[in-house]
Amino acid sequence: MDRLRAQELTLAYDRRVVAEHLDVRITDGSFTVIVGPNACGKSTLLKALARVLKPRAGAVYLDGQAIASYPSKHVAKQLGMLPQSPIVPGGIVVEELVARGRFAHQKLLRQWSPDDEAAVAEAMRLTEVADLADRFVDELSGGQRQRVWLAMALAQQTPILLLDEPTTFLDLSHQFEVLDLCAELHEEGRTIVAVLHDLNHACRYATELIVMRAGKVLAQGPPSTVMTAELVGDVFSMPCRVIDDPETGTPMVVPTDRSRRRPRSLVKQA
């Protein structure tokens, strides 16, 4: 049985329903990437999986038990979450923020330990923010902050890591560095679930894709079988070719020339 799954989910914000009757299974040991157009429910699904958003109906299950039934610290030891737009606490420095990832490991009679210290140092090293340790987080660039938040999630040392657009604000080089790091963590045995916008990044790194549209899962499986020109056209309304990436052999989406994509009426009006 897969450790993390969702069954018959209805997800909503106040009166706005985002998804209904949503079933998802996260394959153990996979690097699963969720893709789809804006406002299709990707981030909402990830929040539900992380127990950040309470489903209006249905349930998320962790190890066969409803995730809502577990104590918060138990969930925090199993699931690490990098949210899409985290709020930076005022007056906190980088090392303090990363150290908050160790909260679930604290005990009444042991508030801090050498293991905590080592976990924080390793997370900062992996995300290349060790030299920012004494800087205030709210003074950092968007890309630096993103790496600091990722370091906090890594410091939790959870077997399952949920990442909502982890490459946001990062330049191209740092995008690949973060995704390479995720791939290494996956190879070491962690289950990774990430929301990504870039289809080619998704195909290059994922072992499994979940493709969503309008709150529904349209396809799930390996990129080699899921990512087709027909699917891209159906989900994103974008004509394209899907070819083999010359570096990795994974599917690569190549949009058709703009003169063939753009309606003539729009060209005349421009």
UniProtKB/TrEMBL annotation:
The keyword Transferase belongs to this UniProt entry's keyword annotation: no
A GO biological-process term: iron ion transport
InterPro entries: AAA+_ATPase, ABC_transporter-like_ATP-bd, ABC_transporter-like_CS, P-loop_NTPase, Siderophore_ABC-ATPase
Any single Gene Ontology cellular-component annotation: plasma membrane
PROSITE patterns linked: ABC_TRANSPORTER_1 (PS00211), ABC_TRANSPORTER_2 (PS50893)
Gene3D superfamilies (alphabetical): P-loop containing nucleotide triphosphate hydrolases
Ranges where the record places region Disordered: 247-270
Sorted UniProt keywords: ATP-binding, Cell membrane, Ion transport, Iron, Iron transport, Membrane, Nucleotide-binding, Transport
Keyword Cell wall biogenesis/degradation found: no
PANTHER family according to UniProt: IRON(3+)-HYDROXAMATE IMPORT ATP-BINDING PROTEIN FHUC
Name of this chain's protein: ABC transporter
Organism, scientific name: Virgisporangium ochraceum
